[in-house]
Every structure is written in structure tokens, then in C-alpha cells.
Design brief:
The protein is mostly beta strands. The protein has one domain. The chain is built from two helices and 13 strands. The longest helix is centred in the last third of the chain and has 12 residues.
Length: about 190
Amino acid sequence: EAGPVLGRHRLAIDWIGRDGKPFAVEQREMTAYNTPEGTLIEFASHLESRAGAVRLDGDPQHAGFQFRASQDVPDKTKALTYYLRPDGKGKPGSFRNWPGDKSHANLPWNALSFVLDDQRYTCCYLDRPQNPKESRFSERDYGRFGSYFEFDLSEDRPLDLNYRIWLQPGEMDVAGVSALSHDFVTPPTATVQ
């Protein structure tokens, strides 16, 4: 589905075991909204087990939901990369990673500021309280960051995930990213009279 306002991609994914049969099934949806200020990407996933208990775990640097900037960032501009976190602006070359930094978990959001083709961008990673916790965050100077968690999936305990990525030209501040996070966690409500 695509148009001038949004593009949406829906997938039905079979997670295949060593026996060649699906042990889990996933419905995944990614929607990108084109706005004058930037691009909003919404990610949603529903995962169900088809084979009893399934343990979800992984490497903090690669598992879970991650964002990775263009290869030009590590190749040309990684020294200019910094992170903006709920506790303030980091310095280029300063990165936090779980498990080395145990406090780098359960963040409502994290933001990456990077340079691509002589333009600075900010990428905001927005989490939700309903996503599994403990969410363990990692950051790299080459423009890859995100979080992962451990989860015990079963036939009567599916996994539902929702994340947002906001990408815009220029720098952002803590208040701006916090407002995006608030809007994601507490969306507007409408009443019909």
C-alpha cells in the first residue's frame, strides 16, 4: 500500500525450525508517513508460537528492534555521531551499552544524531511501556542503536510489539524527543457525541 501520505508493508512470516516446519508465525507491519517535518515509521509485530515454549533472547548489539543509518555514516562521518538520551546530550565518541552500563535499560526513548551527505539528522527511537521489559539498549558510533529483551513465548502467551522511529533533518533536544515519546505512549483520544 503506497500513496502521497504513507507507505505500508505487511508480512506474514513463518519462523522455520531445523525440521523445516514453522515453530512460530508472525504478522509484521511497517508504515512510513511522509510529513513536512520528517518521516515517521511505525513498526508493529504479533508473534505466536506453534510449537510450545519458545525462548526469545539474543545479542544486545543485534537482537530486538534496531535502527542502522546509511553505510556512509561509518565510512565518512562517524566521528560526528552523538546520542541524545533522556538524561541529556552525549558527546561524540561516547556511547552507552548494556550490559556494561546496567542503567542503559528501560528507556522511554533514545535518539541518534548523525551526519549524512553534509546534512545532520536526528533519529528518535521510541519505546512503549507495553513492550517487554527489561529492554536493554545499545549504541554504536556507526549509526546503529536499539534495544532487545528476553521473552518466553508460548501458545497461550503471544508477543505484541510496537515501536516508532522519527527521522528529521537537524538536531533535536530532550524536550522535543520527550514530546514525541509522550504522544506515542499517550495518543490523543476522540469521543463521539
